[in-house]
């Protein structure tokens, strides 16, 4: 298991490790085959000196962080995994999320690859190549998206925090598939300014890490707030497991890992109850006209598409164009329907500390199955829908969720998602700390 940020920071503070030495180790990984295609805007040259300049008592102590390509970095364009924006004007300032990481002593080592314009949960990019999942050295498997390079940077050991975004699962999906921790906070906690939008309604700025305690630290930095203490013991927790939707179509490896995780938490004293969430069945009708991502991405991209459609990933353009036919009253109806749905879901979850679900119902398939090419479009869109299905529920809920590895050693990674409605972030993080120790046994 890779050392987490807390362990490494302690080694730097004690003098047992130098920040420059650790940065050079991270960069050796970032430039290796393990991170091929993970970085599309490297900042490798300046990173060792920048790390050396950070005081050892800074929160991030000069340790490596990676920045998803949709965030502004002062003096650079923000292409968001595209080629049509590769020559756009340089950003005048860092995005607030980037600035907060740097102010806390994090050293960006590069812009990470992503699904073009963040519009896919698979992580395939036809322009810059697709970084291979870090969990399998023999078969190149999908990394998950859209924060694909961010996940690979953390899972390989190149970075301690992978800054990304989550609109329908873009942090939790790659975290689950790569066997790391991905926390999606309640969206309002972290500013989205300086991040190229997919859906202004659903976008959440958040991060992937190697441990839950690192996730708490990353959230505290990004949200500029302190996380309050959570429950003291799992026996104090009452968990729900939804009968509908979340467990549909699980492959055998995911089913085994999920049942094992529930068993471990139950043995530790957690009360786990299966419940019905009939409101989940309403989501297809609520989103039948395309949903927020299609409508809001089309509003942002329509003029660029008119000028440069040939430069887009055709799979991304197809999804954006779903927003073109949506009428104003349908968009307003969607806003009202979501608000009413959130009320029904929140009421149904009252009395539970969290809900437990598989983050995604499958393990990572080979990249070759869904690589760019019209002959593989059907397979790509089927996988994309399956990967987004579970985590996107929490974005619609305006909720918070964390994905923790729950697979056995030697198996492909599987994520356990612990989630609830909005503004329960601290409680979810506290539960995740307790659960993590049980799942690792």
TrEMBL record:
Domain annotation Amidase: ranges: 29-425
InterPro entries per the UniProt record, alphabetical: Amidase, Amidase_CS, Amidase_dom, AS_sf
SUPFAM superfamilies tied to this protein: Amidase signature (AS) enzymes
Pfam families per the UniProt record, alphabetical: Amidase
NCBIfam families, A to Z: PRK07056.1
PANTHER family reported in the protein's UniProt record: AMIDASE AMID-RELATED, TRANSAMIDASE
Record's protein name: Amidase
């Amino acid at each position: 298991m890779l050392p987490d940020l807390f362990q490494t920071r302690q080694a730097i503070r004690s003098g047992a490790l130098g920040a420059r030495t650790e940065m050079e180790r991270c960069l050796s990984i970032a430039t290796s085959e393990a991170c091929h295609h993970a970085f599309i805007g490297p900042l490798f040259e300046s990173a060792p000196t920048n790390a050396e300049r950070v005081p050892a008592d800074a929160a991030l102590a000069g340790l490596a962080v990676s920045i998803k390509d949709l965030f502004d970095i002062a003096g650079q364009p923000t292409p968001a995994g595209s080629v049509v924006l590769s020559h756009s004007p340089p950003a005048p300032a860092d995005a607030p999320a980037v600035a907060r990481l740097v102010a806390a002593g994090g050293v960006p080592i590069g812009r990470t690859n992503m699904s073009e314009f963040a519009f896919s949960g698979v992580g395939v990019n036809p322009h810059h190549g697709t970084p291979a999942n870090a969990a399998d050295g023999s078969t190149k498997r999908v990394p998950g998206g859209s924060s694909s390079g961010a996940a690979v940077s953390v899972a390989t050991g190149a970075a301690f925090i992978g800054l990304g975004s989550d609109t329908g699962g873009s942090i939790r999906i790659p975290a689950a598939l790569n066997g790391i921790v991905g926390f999606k906070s309640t969206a309002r906690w972290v500013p989205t300014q300086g991040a190229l939008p997919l859906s202004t309604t659903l976008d959440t700025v958040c991060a992937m890490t190697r441990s839950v305690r690192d996730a708490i630290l990353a959230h505290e930095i990004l949200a500029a707030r302190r996380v309050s203490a959570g429950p003291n013991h799992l026996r104090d927790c009452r968990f729900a497991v939804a009968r509908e939707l979340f467990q549909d179509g699980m492959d055998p490896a995911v089913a085994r890992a999920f049942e094992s995780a529930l068993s471990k938490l139950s043995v530790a004293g957690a009360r786990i109850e299966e419940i019905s969430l009939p409101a989940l069945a309403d989501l297809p009708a609520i989103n039948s006209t395309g949903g927020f991502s299609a409508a809001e991405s089309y509003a942002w991209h329509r003029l660029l598409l008119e000028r440069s459609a040939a430069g887009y990933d055709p799979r991304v353009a197809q999804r954006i164009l779903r927003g073109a036919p949506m009428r104003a009253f349908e968009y307003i109806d969607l806003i009202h329907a979501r608000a009413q749905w959130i009320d029904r879901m929140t009421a149904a979850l009252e009395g539970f500390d969290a809900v437990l679900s598989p983050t995604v119902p499958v393990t990572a398939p080979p990249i070759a199955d869904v690589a760019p090419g019209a002959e593989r479009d059907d397979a790509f869109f089927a996988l994309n829908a399956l990967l987004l299905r579970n985590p996107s529920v929490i974005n619609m809920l305006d909720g918070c969720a964390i994905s923790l590895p729950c697979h056995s050693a030697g198996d492909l990674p599987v994520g356990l998602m612990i989630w609830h409605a909005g503004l329960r972030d601290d409680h979810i993080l506290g539960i995740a700390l307790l659960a993590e120790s049980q799942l690792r046994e």
